[in-house]
Amino acid sequence: MHTKRYEFDTVSDYDSRMQLIRDQDFDRYFDALETLADARIKAADEIMDLARRHGCVMVSHFGSHRYYVHWSLEFSGRLRITGWDEYGPTYHHEIESGVDLEVELPEGSFTASYK
User: Whole domain around residue 26: which residue ranges?
Assistant: First the structure.
């Protein structure tokens, strides 16, 4: 099993972003938010590439929730993300791009594992 850790601590300083809002420095706030989104979209693109090459990637965060990025059984040639908790699957969504996947990924740091 191969595992890659994605960490966004250097670009995801929530407290600093909230201070920018309090200071009404909205340009810097949106720049910081865009930097975080770009880093997460890059990670999502990598995860989608791994899923295409290996068939399935498990994304995990602390706790019992897991997410699987895998080939869609409904739409040929497309990927899907399926959320799981301790009872089984909780949802699935078709994804076409890193932007689609980024919003589905857990907040903060997470790992991606594949065979």
Answer: 2-114
Strands 79-85 and 2-6: unpaired
User: Given its phi and psi angles, is residue 47 left (phi above 0), alpha (psi -120 to 50 degrees) or beta?
Assistant: alpha
- Express each pLDDT in 18-64 by its tens digit: 888 899 999 989 998 899 999 999 999 999 999 999 999 999 987 67
Distances, alpha carbon 90 to alpha carbons 21, 44, 84, in Å: 35, 20, 5
Whole-angstrom CA distances from 37 to 6, 86, 101 are: 13, 29, 11
Residue 109 CA: distances (Å) to CA of 36, 38, 43, 84? 12, 15, 11, 18
Q: Over the stretch 83-104, which tens digit does the pLDDT of each residue have?
A: 998 899 999 999 999 999 999 9
What's the number of domains the chain is made of?
1
